[in-house]
Amino acid sequence: MPKEYNPEFVGTVTKYVFVESPDITPQHLSIRAYEISQGVMIKETCFGLQITGMPEEVEKVIAALREMDPYHILVKDRGFPPGDKRRCRANLGGARPGYFGHEFEMGLLRHISKGLKAMENGVKPDEKSVNAITYHDKPLLDTERLEEIAVSKSRESANKEADTGAAKSETTK
To answer: For residues 16 and 61, what is the distance between their CA atoms, to the nearest angstrom?
Structure first.
């Protein structure tokens, strides 16, 4: 029977605040957030902040932060509050699963910033600019090849377990 989940932060939202600015660092954001926050949880990260609290308070803090550099401070919802046992690496071990997604998204922020500025100035994107964004430097892994790798690794793991189990039973005889 699965363990019952009891949320710690009922009624709250968690937002990521990404900063990709030549003038503002995550530390600048966190200092400003602490100055204006009232009862929200703020965590400084390598990419910006994670803010958790009642929705209206979180939005108030984010609005003030974005005033600092609206083109280079961007916001994204987070599905889980900090420390959530279902996602926290302290409970799961290793890197947090979403980290690699953030790393990828950070590479896109300069393009989004440029587009936001252009839109405000009434400039429409041209085909060359849109196609200039490179999402992957090397070819993607084919799904069939990925499945082959997963199956072979699974077999290797099963064989190792079987070998270890046989070796243990031999030593106990």
So the answer is: 12
Show the beta-strand stretches assigned E in the chain: 13-19, 41-44, 48-53, 73-78
Q: What is the pTM of this model?
A: 0.64
Question: Do 79 and 158 fall within a single domain?
Answer: no
* Phi and psi, residue 74, nearest 5°: -125, 155
Per-residue buried b or exposed e for 105-114, using 16+ beta carbons within 10 Å of the residue's own CB: bbeebeebbe
* Assigned domain for 93 exists: yes
Which CATH number fits the domain that encloses residue 81? 3.30.70
Report the domain count for the chain. 2
CA atoms within 13 A on the CB side of 101: 6
The residues pairing with 52 across neighbouring beta strands, listed in sequence order, are 14, 41
Residue ranges making up the domain that contains 26: 13-102
pLDDT digits 0-9 by tens, 17-66: 999 888 899 999 999 999 998 889 998 988 899 999 999 999 999 999 99
